[in-house]
Amino acid sequence: MRQEEIEQALKNKEIKVYLQPQVDLHTEKIVGAESLVRWEKDSAIIPPNEFIPFCEQTGYITQIDHYVLETVCSFIQKWKKKIPIAVNESRRHLYNPHHIEDLQRTVEKYEVEAKYIELEMTETAVVHDIKMAKEAERRVHALGFKVAMDDFGTGYSSFSMLREIQIDILKIDKSFVDEVTQDRRGKIIIEAIIQMAKRLEMITIAEGIETKEQAQYLKTIGCDIAQGYYYAFPIPIEKFERRYLA
Ligand code: C2E
Ligand code: CA
Ligand code: CA
Fold this sequence. Notes:
- This protein is α/β, with parallel strands linked by helices.
- It contains twelve helices and ten strands.
- Helix 3 packs parallel to helix 5 (99-109).
- The chain binds ligand C2E and calcium ion (2 copies).
- Ligand C2E binds next to strand 2, helix 3 and strand 6.
């Protein structure tokens, strides 16, 4: 992949924002969505795993994430019944002093209350420099944004991070959900995570729900929200709006 290709893609607006619904396990209503990018190149769709790592290395991720937030805010602004939307925060941003000002400027520009934006951070971003991450969390909370921890449980320091950083939403990684209906040990672990999250007053979202059995089980153990192909695939933001918010 070459830098010029990404530059062209951004300029030609080939990078598109998709949204995947998040469903309340108890009411089965859509209570939010996560924004995920796709690169619509010629007539193919390139998934983020094929260009996000390159963009993180080269710094283009900053432009992509800014573009995603702008797009999301411009949509939220016109929704009568607003729902919160999650945006992925690359670890690059935590080290960019202008980033938080940029977040603030963008929500103000579209007159969107910051509480409708959930900033998803990953553990790898945070452990890299815990002091910086703590400071970033404190500042975004002061502005009213919500903070979610993405891919919870996949790294080495998930728990110590929870002690350090104030998190509103815990996203339990798909790898825990995959085997949850068969694996006794896996069940014990996920149940304990959900109990802990409740006591810490965090909302729990289970990622990668693919079957009815998984959904039912997660509901019985008190998980709040589910996101996965069982409910819906990520779809272009315009389509999401027509389908769910019209
Ligand atoms: P992620 O943040 O963990 O996003 C969840 C991924 O799981 C998405 O993959 C989503 O499409 C996929 N997924 C959702 N439900 C299911 C399911 O039931 N089964 C399976 N097998 N997968 C499911 P996607 O869209 O390919 O994104 C991959 C990763 O790329 C994301 O992982 C995120 O780390 C990154 N990414 C995507 N969009 C952005 C963005 O705008 N900015 C940044 N910085 N990273 C992004
Ligand atoms: Ca995410
Ligand atoms: Ca995730």
